[in-house]
Amino acid sequence: GGPRRLLLVSNSTLHGGGYLGHCQQHIKSFLGEKVKRVLFVPYALRDRDAYARTAREKFESLGYGLDSIHESCDPVEAVRKSEAIFIGGGNTFRLLKALYDNSLIQEIRKRVLEDGIPYMGSSAGTNVATISINTTNDMPIVYPPSLQALGLVPFNINPHYLDPDVKSTHMGETREERIHQYHEEPNTPPVLGLREGAMLLVEGDKATLQGVTGARLFLRGKKPTEHEPGTDFSFLLIDSNLQNL
What we know:
Blueprint: E1 5-9, H1 24-31, E2 37-41, H2 48-61, E3 65-68, H3 75-81, E4 85-87, H4 92-101, H5 105-114, E5 119-122, H6 124-127, E6 156-158, H7 175-183, E7 191-194, E8 198-203, E9 206-211, E10 215-218, E11 225-227
Parallel strand pairs: 1-5, 2-3, 2-4, 4-5, 6-7
Antiparallel strand pairs: 1-8, 7-10, 8-9, 10-11
């Protein structure tokens, strides 16, 4: 099989644009001309039919057919036959539970890491591509058997990363403080805070920040660092245990 190819998008919709509008050129260059059909996983939202319609409309406008996994009588077989996989956003806990319930964790890992088919995620779909969903922003509305996710990359991501509003009087924790609390636990991997409009392209052992906004990188025991689009994040792919850098 070929090397892993991932496009991990922070958000499906950017202010002022339509569904996946801000990243449609990235999607086209990522999937290329070899892929004809995309397998869509709508498990993060309750109304899977409506979600699949939205995704199908978008992908067809870009020249790709789209099959939704919830319409298949055998989800495992659908993954085995897929040319590319796209997991959409919604509630991360609901999504991960459905992946476990349908015995898809190992199947998707195999297709992406061994067979080299392209994997695209947005929001919750980006969360589940990482080691775990410990750094999601979502409420645990259902109970997956584990917080361990697909592990397509050896670190975690926080999609929709928000900077503190300097004018706000809100006294609750900032996103940065919450990630810091996660890193107070031993052996926790790096967390990449992807702002809305940002995405991470992974090709084999190379990872590059793309999109129109930057990202904030959190390493356990270190001060967070700020990164612009174009940043090479390949070092994050080498080892999940970067505490000793």
